[in-house]
Amino acid sequence: MTVFRKSVGYVAGIAIAATTGLVSYRALQAEGPEPPAVISGVPRDFPDAADDLVKRGQYLTRAADCEACHTVVGGAPFSGGRPFKLPFGTIYATNLTPDRETGIGGWSDARFLRAVRDGIGTHGNLYPAMSYTSYTALSTADALAIKAYLSSLKPVHATVPTGTLSFPFNQRWGMKLWNLVFFHPHRYKPDPTRDAQWNRGAYLATALGHCGECHTPRNIGFAMRSREYLAGTVVEGWKAYNTTSNATYGIGEWSDEQLTGYLAQGHAHGRSSAAGPMAEVVEHSLQYLTPSDIQALVVYLRGIDPVRGVGSDRVELKPAAVVASTNLLPAGDAAGGNTRGRQLFEGDCAGCHQFNGVGRQSEYASLAGSHAVNDTTGTSMLQVILDGSSLTVNGRRQVMPGFGAAYSNEDVAAVANYVLAHFGSKLGKIDAAAVAKARQTH
Amino acid sequence: MITLNINGIDYSFDGDPEMPLLWYLRDEAGLTGTKFGCGMALCGACTVHVDGAPARSCMLPVGAVRGRITTIEAVAETHVGRAVQEAWVKAQVPQCGYCQSGQVMTASALLAKDAKPTEADIDAAMSGNICRCATYNRIREAINDAAEVLTR
Ligand code: FES
Ligand code: FES
Predict the structure, then answer these.
(1) Does domain B75-150 correspond to CATH entry 2.40.30.20?
(2) Chain A: residue nearest B47 by CA?
(3) Which of A261, A340, A432, B124 is deepest in the core (most CB within 10 A)?
């Protein structure tokens, strides 16, 4: 007993000493100077914003993509309530409109900065589903411009539901410990070995766009694994693909034109179209970036260390069956014995997607070369088949209807495997159980 | 200003480029032979040709059209289209007729590409055109008949 008590005391002692050490170490770490204005702020090619704080704020709010997360389907923009299903429960995005009771009306600058950059909200520490781990790098001027824009919106009275996290994750003090270990408060620190364009791209991709929050795998403590930065992972049932410069599994072999097209319009000719959460990013955020900012992002992404990532499949750019097919007729029997999959594709999909993979009504419907039809797990493809996808760019809406209500799990699996075979030259092993699981993630 | 070439005639339009081509054909150009079924590119009733390839006009914004449009009103001006229409009449394919403009457009695109389609080819090309009256057997018969006339 005494031995036990002693060892408990011993362990506790070490823990306290370690925590105190970490706290004082962190306290000594400076957040660093403000990033210079060429790197932060709005770009030079952003029209007439010099003396309009709200306009600048709107640009930066879009670049930081606040709207996608802080708006629930059918709700007023920025009024919160969108649920985030985490492995340990559900939390809800807050209301960012200037409503005094339920939103950020009456917030002081300091309070806003604390929430955005330090992750400390009205009820204590925020969960890192809110990307303060990225926003910490924002300049004060940019964060306050965002606040100015949000404050200019019409106040919406909208109370968001309380989260349903299970113990111990519902203990907000737990986040204090998490922050100690995983959160590094800092302002964006320019890399002196790179030019201003690269640094602007880095600021856009990290402090504002927080790409890594979805595209970087997380460790067991839900923090981003820095060595696999942008190597791709699964988020809310969708694949956030590898966007490192890896030639085979990342975007290393995408042309500048493809990258620009994807970022600015959600479609890379001969490659992928954005769907699901990435479609939201393009719709609410990326399409509004100026050409110089898109260019800076391209330059930055090209400089990311190539990482293979896990669970990646090689993208087939010229699948044999697609090459052999015409727009109306399939060839090169990719179906194998999967006649059901082929029949479904003929009836419901070919009308837009076409057997030669180029897309009929819209090139957004082209399938050849897209990541989703080359991923043998079918992760994102299943979501698109079940729920459809929609993307509005430059006022033009691209839409694919969902088939989840009309198709059985077996049918979804059959058509998904057919698509993998025909458009990716891959043997899909998607079964009804995988489809049932995919149905649960949305 | 958008210029559309429909059945050999140039039309100019300065309205919303997002207007679906189907809407333009029916309401602006007065070409009501093309029908509205689902509006989601799922039924094929609205099929027209853009440079000879079948396209669902309900999901094709006028601003995105690249090529010459042919509708059911002018499909008989091509050799294949005429053969298809004649075979359709001969086999008395339509029941209510609502889906048939789309069926004829897809069938003529198929035969223009492949004058001797197999049964599987007909399935592959025609499955996207739905017929509520289930005239599928007669559609198949007419396509085979037209194919025979065309390869004679
Ligand atoms: S109306 Fe266009 S496909 Fe149904
Ligand atoms: S003939 Fe009636 S829908 Fe086809």
Answers:
(1) no
(2) A351
(3) B124
